[in-house]
Amino acid sequence: MKSEYSSLSLKAGMENNFRVSNLNTTCNDTSYGRYLDNGTRSNLTFHEQSPDFYVVLPVIYSVICAVGLTGNTAVIYVILKAPKMKTVTNMFILNLAIADDLFTLVLPINIAEHLLHYWPFGAILCKIILSIDHYNIFSSIYFLTVMSIDRYLVVLATVRSKRMPHRTYRAARIVSLCIWALVTIIVLPFTIFANVYVDGLEIKSCGLNFPKPERFWFKASRIYTLILGFAIPVSTICILYTMMLYKLRNMHLNSNAKALDKAKKKVTIMVFIVLTVCLFCWTPFHLATIVALTTDLAQTSLVIGISYFITSLSYANSCLNPFLYAFLDDSFRKSFRKMLECRAA
């Protein structure tokens, strides 16, 4: 029988990160946001069922943290230091790397929380960590969207044999600042609701403390994230890339046909990589939102395990981006190798 949506049950135990809530959260006697049901913290419950689980998970998160910090820091360093890397596209890659680096930088705090089974870091850091988590959710996909718009405009200008005088490094910097401002506004509600509280077991937890009616606010927050953080930007990316490939396919030049054919293949491969990796890492996370809103899943070991896998997958996107947008670029590899040689000398 479904229980009442009391404030106690809604403020029950906490997952080690907000993202885990998507599959762990249902609409029966479970809680919302970062919480689980019956005043029992999910990590303790799952620990009883799988003792090795809390050894493996921190290892996975640590690998993601190490690879993400190394890769994104290298991207930031090369773009800022190498003169030839100061391009419009690289400006967006730089901001994408900053967003991912910021998230992986605070990932050790989530690992510590997972191992300690409570939140020892205070209310201010709670708001900061939850805000950064949401910054990562929104900023990554928004910068990918801006990069898609930029590529589409470049292809369009090429087809029409026109120049783009306003496409400058400075303009890209202004656009990037606007994206950060937009993401800040989007994330602000989560920052406001983030708080530390003590549950029925006298355990300090950090999570989203929604006002009454909690069920309404929970569903509203999930729909809010789903639409603004996935549906709109991913739809935009897919439409732009489809139009871009269509224009390239129908593009005719009187000369340099081989270069055009090479450009088609390069763009096609990049489109495939971008969309595949982005959708592979984030689609399960957002589909879990739909599952949480439409079904009543029991809190079984399988469900909790799947939720952690989905969370880890979304984390992994932060360490894959450097390889996708920078390390696959010949100019970046040359600049990176040259800087390493200079440092060694």
UniProtKB/TrEMBL annotation:
Q: Which SUPFAM superfamilies match?
A: Family A G protein-coupled receptor-like (SSF81321)
- Which terms in the Gene Ontology molecular function aspect does this entry carry? neuropeptide binding; neuropeptide receptor activity
Q: Does the keyword Disulfide bond apply?
A: yes
> Which cell locations does it reside in?
Cell membrane
Q: Which GO terms describe its cellular component?
A: neuron projection; plasma membrane
Q: Keywords assigned by UniProt?
A: Cell membrane, Disulfide bond, G-protein coupled receptor, Glycoprotein, Membrane, Receptor, Transducer, Transmembrane, Transmembrane helix
Query: What is stated as this protein's family in its record?
Result: Belongs to the G-protein coupled receptor 1 family.
PANTHER family (alphabetical): NEUROPEPTIDES B_W RECEPTOR TYPE 2, NEUROPEPTIDES RECEPTOR
Q: What residue intervals traverse the membrane?
A: 53-80, 92-111, 140-159, 171-194, 223-246, 267-285, 305-328
List the InterPro entries: GPCR_Rhodpsn, GPCR_Rhodpsn_7TM, Neuropept_B/W_rcpt
Highest taxon listed in the record's lineage: Eukaryota
The G-protein coupled receptors family 1 profile domain covers 71-325
Name of this chain's protein: G-protein coupled receptors family 1 profile domain-containing protein
Q: How does it sit in the membrane?
A: Multi-pass membrane protein
Q: What is its main location?
A: membrane
Keyword hit for Ribosomal protein: no
